[in-house]
Amino acid sequence: MTTAAVIIRGGEEQLGMSWTQREYTPPKSYNSTTMTVPGGSSRGDEGVVVDTTTNTFKEYLPSKTCGNTPISTTTSVPFNTSSQWAPEGKSLAAHIASAMPTPPESPPPTHLATSTICDSHHHEALVDKTTRQLGLHNLLRVSTSNADRYWLTRRCCYVFHCLSLRTKFNYANIPNKMILRDDRVVRAMEQVVAEELEEAGVEEQDDCRARMSLLAKHTARANKLLTDMKAAISSTLIRITGYVLFKVFSNLLMSVTVHGGQQEVIDRAAQRDTPVIFVPLHRSHVDYLFVTWVLFNRQIPAPIVAAGDNLRIPVFGWLLRGLGGFFIKRRLDNCKSRKDVLYRSLLQTYVTHALQAGYNLEFFIEGGRTRTGKPCMPKGGLLSVIVDAYSNGTLDDALIVPIAINYDKILDGNFIREQMGQSKIPESFWGAVRAIMKVLSTNYGHARIDFGQPFSLREFVHNQKRASFSQLPLSSQPHNDVLPGCTPPLSPSPMIEMPVLSNGRNSEQLQSLPQPFPLSEQQKPETALFSPSPLVMGKSYHQRSLSTPAANGNLRLRRTTSNPSNALNTVTCTNSRLTGAPSSSSLFGTEVTEEYRSLVKSLAVHIVFDAERCQAVMATNAVAWLLSYVYRDGVKLSTLVEAVDALRDSLKTRKRDTGFSGHSRDAVLHAVHMLGAGLVRLEQSTTQTSTTSDTEQDFFIRPVTLLPNIIELNYYASALAPLFAADAIIVTCLLSSLDCDLWSYKDCSPDCLVDREKLIQRGLRLAQLLQNEFLLVPACASLLTKLGQVVDNLIDMGLLQDAGKVDSRWSEDSDEDDISFSQQYKLAPTSSTLEVIGAWRNMLAPMLDTYYHAACCLTSLVGKQLPDKEFIQSIQTHVSSLLEKGTLRYGESICVDPIRNAVKLFESESIVECYNHNSIRLVYLTREYDAEDRLSPLISEIDSYRSCIS
Ligand SMILES: CCCCCCCCCCCCCCCC(=O)SCCNC(=O)CCNC(=O)[C@H](O)C(C)(C)COP(=O)(O)OP(=O)(O)OC[C@H]1O[C@@H](n2cnc3c(N)ncnc32)[C@H](O)[C@@H]1OP(=O)(O)O
């Protein structure tokens, strides 16, 4: 075996400082001078070893230090043995080694300043000048007092750090019997027993014994369900795990970066007298480790975390429970036709009690890890529990914190198997051990955690109500919404104190909430905005009275702000009932009104939108995006570097952070390095000129576009998809409506005009077709406006130029007022604009191919029904055969996720319907579409957007 080593020295000297020289900074009071250099702190030698037997570089990156213990990390990068690629004595290894990803600078935490379009939903009070000025902080760098003096402190800095942190909080125990005695659970139990008695044909009054035995059976089941569900946080376990994670992460990752300002804001949020709800987007199993670990570092009580019960595996299940995990069924009902009301009531009651007892909560609103790299559509179940707890007065408010976590390379491998249509391998003890062992031997680059700005649930609901009012005609707006003599504030101050009613609920709550369940006439607040559906009116068991705490007795476990140690368990239980009226909405509610559902849904969309918006773009995302959509046939390193520069500028304009900084060349090489030989090849450039002295030209970077590798590359590229989705939609509509190929008109203008209104209308329809792929705007914003902004952006880019206005409508029987003018544009494509819009078009192209062929496959359903799995598989087989024939260009069109989304779209457009039969979901065409010719308009419509794909 031939090895060549390139030794690069002096990481620490280069930085001009060592961590040991810094002063101890308690984690709570973060000091921006401790801002660290990911991967930059080094001691000892670093080097690069070329292993010619495996065609990889073993690169010994500058070792990270903990005390004076060097921890070396090893990574592999592809290299080409067949050519003399090393230019002028400088090896590729050296290039890569010198391309240590540069530390993220301290970008302004843009998403702290203005998190989303509706800024009024944000707790401005939590952010001030200081928080905005704090820099990035690598959590792996800890400093200890007098570290330069005490060898032991240096040597075991993680131990000392973890011992110095406070983990002991009074995590309340929520006994099973307290939950079982709750009104909601009691009613659920009665309902289940009544149903079973009815099914068995037993009259419940007649058969007391049968009733009692059923009650005993279901009480035992409820007890078991609760025991399996509940978290049991152990402070000691958290401390030990915190330490272990320091050791593990410092081996696997070059940095784990969080913005100091964001941490400060989270500290402040945690000190409020309201529960904090952490809602991260889910990419990896490391996500939940990170969140609790960050909180551990900030000495904030660990939240309870909703974990799918597939994770309740030996040893790990026990560990997760001790670290805050509570286990929920991923599907609430085993059989869709029958709701598991008992389970639903237990889950809702447990979460409500936990929130009231002062626990912070964390859950993954997407319901699982994203398989595509884009955020998944949110689920409303757990969120509805929180909204319900607020609506019934159990909670005064909650602070919701969207979180995005991004990685240079995800630690959980890839989702190729599942995207190719194979079933997920269930979690098991040995599977988890194997995965951990595999992970431990790899370097995963940088990780970045971004906390979005916390916002108040109360404010959100309040603003939603206002938005709904503004849509009502003035005459029907409830007059007493506005306090006498006051003009309603457009965005209420977060600190507004609502008048508190005798039962502990504030009048704002009573007035502002959509009523999930009908109230009797006396109970109905005058201002009830959301009328109950007639369907619900008939259900008698939901017509519960809003019992006052006085009537119920109180369990009031209040959080205190003054002493965090008493944040939990600070008020004694006087009884086992909750303060608020136990409403039946949310999970246990069987017929929640549509208005209430849409409130929860818009909140869910808001959270995902906010979280996505604060996600930092990693170097791997940028490079994968450019290679997938701009340089699919490969590109010279220097060109790619320029493209990354341009992309960074574009991200900056769009107020998006990057998880890297410094020279783009370093970022590109680092990304190539991280993506690995399976996804990206680094080759000697064939266009090398003998005169050039620029060594960058000597490399050629080529994405691996073969299946299944392209699916994984696409995963990394997709992190940017939501950012450019609206642009891609408008550009696709624009290009597909032209009769000419814009690329043949470079630097001259084709003889055609573009109508603004028609373009936006077409964009709206395409956005509707892709509704399951992208969340383009939060519920509080208008898609029409957003698409209009995209068109304006094309004007700014110079692609569209004003060509005057023309009459766009004229109806014969109308007067002149009905004439409207529509703006026309002529096209002025240049090579740079074509490159940008080409990338946007290519981003949607694989997806549109999938949707088109899924629509074509609908013809196979004519006159019959198929299990949905079989139907999806048949679409995938069809796409696969087209790929083999070379008819389709994009390998990623085969992915199962867009196929499923296409089927969901057909269902929402009432083209197909589904029903459950013997636990199999069958899909069939609705009567209106059950013939080939009736499907043609849909197929042609989708095809019309594809016509721009060359
Ligand atoms: C120091 C270091 C320490 C280290 C420290 C480590 C920490 C260690 C912790 C471990 C932690 C592991 C974490 C793993 C990560 C996962 O396992 S992720 C997977 C598990 N988590 C989740 O899924 C959370 C999000 N999911 C949900 O909220 C889902 O809704 C549920 C609750 C799972 C139910 O899903 P589903 O059965 O598919 O049903 P879905 O359609 O969502 O609706 C269910 C009901 O909710 C209600 N609902 C739904 N939408 C709405 C709406 N819009 N409005 C009103 N009601 C609604 C309705 O009642 C609905 O029923 P229907 O009336 O429609 O029949």
TrEMBL record:
Start-end of Polar residues biased regions: 26-36
GO biological process: fatty acid metabolic process; glycerol-3-phosphate metabolic process; phospholipid biosynthetic process; triglyceride biosynthetic process
Chief place of localization: membrane
Sequence ranges assigned to domain Phospholipid/glycerol acyltransferase in this UniProt record: 276-408
Species: Petrolisthes cinctipes
UniProt family annotation: Belongs to the GPAT/DAPAT family.
Locations listed in the record: Membrane
Pfam short name (any one): Acyltransferase
GO MF term (any one): glycerol-3-phosphate O-acyltransferase activity
Gene Ontology CC entries for this record: mitochondrial membrane
Stated name of the protein: Phospholipid/glycerol acyltransferase domain-containing protein
Keywords, ordered alphabetically: Acyltransferase, Membrane, Transferase
Annotated segments matching region Disordered: 26-46, 547-567
